[in-house]
Amino acid sequence: MKKNIKPFSLFLLGLALLFFSCREEEFELVEGPREEVLQANSTVATLLQRTATNDGSHDNIIDMASCLSVQLPITVIVNGQEINVDSEDDFDTIEDIFDALEDDDDSLEIEFPITVILKDYTEVLIFDADQLEDLTEDCSGENEPDEDIECADIKYPITASIFNSSNEVLDVITFTNDSDLYRFLDGLEDDDIVNLDFPITVVLFDGTEVLAADLDALERILDDASDDCDEDDDNDYDDDDCDSCTTDQLSEVLVGCPDWRVDRLERDDQNLEELYESYLFGFSEDGTLEVFSSTGTLEGTWEAEGSANEITLSINIPDLNDFNASWRVHEIEQEGDAREIDLRIGEDRLEFESICTSDSSGDDSAGDTTDGNGTMDLNSYLTEGSWSVSTYLDNGLDETSDFSAYTFVFEENGVVTADNGSTITGAWAIQESGDKLVLDFGTALPLDEFNDDWDVFLASDTRIELNDTSGGDGMTDTLILTKQ
To answer: What would the CATH number be for the domain defined by 368-483?
Structure first.
């Protein structure tokens, strides 16, 4: 039986107007009529289908293919470790294993069979790596243009009224996800007449919600979004780790944490971090920058600008050209007291790391520090409370874990005790007006590593930094003590 369209359409129109009147202040509105006909193979239908296409890039760290995704759960072997991947949270685990060592050869093996989901939401059972490779060989390469629009999402539910001019059948369909909408548009025929209920909300890549009031507005919004962001089609996980980063956050971390060290520096395919392993970088709120090393103090400037994945950190240190550039902020990592800033320019990499304790801040709460020459009252710092080893680098080799169980107490009489369940006694002394700290634990292993006259690089009531440069090969040992 033929149904009456007019009352029903008026009812939908009334609901749309009511919805809009309630939400008007929360959205940007693109004005236009409430209903228009969506035709098969039209530009807006194509853009809408591309937006609803299955995005296969989020799991590229597993399948290295943006045109399909792997149905979870699956089991993979990552650098010899078996990982049960139950959700996207486990992609972080894979990335952490890959990033644990910089110079190793990373490998990931999938335990078959698995099910993959194609761009049109077809599910295919895969029994081996060759079958998966056959399926992915026609995919676009890493970061190459592909069909899906990842810079915009439709906010569901949306509703469509369908009228076929051949049999005059009216139907109303509500779409609640991308797969339903994609399949509907994929089966749309030339003689189908589809009226979408407007307004339709489009969520852009930065979280902005835009209301489209008609098909023309929807077409403009989706077309603009089709090339408006990095669609994260790299073959890693979450290569855009700064989606929510701000310049305020970056500045707060840089200024609030002391003594940034170079964890990684690659320029023009050269690894340079060993050249700067004893350097300490201090970022001030006024945009100035100081670099402390055994050869003295250098001064420079820094500036952060941009937003999200487009934030740049510009560094200018006249005497350190390896650092001077406008670096893109790839990631701001905060885990416990540890902070890491990952900066990139193309293939070049710069990573700073710092231990940012609760006493570390940009004000005086961390206590006075030396000016790089150890001229503060080192004696009063050391004899207050107990200390632990937060860093020990032996000629650049990180041996901190050998001393993680020890607690050190410096007595006024020149005795230092090291306690890891049993007590070892040594001697300490300050020389050259506080510029040197002499430690002597005799033959006790592994504390004999500390037997030396250390240059006092920085000192505060919460942190003592010591360096020793060999007169033979010029290698530098670094010992950092932090107040417990």
So the answer is: 2.40.128.270
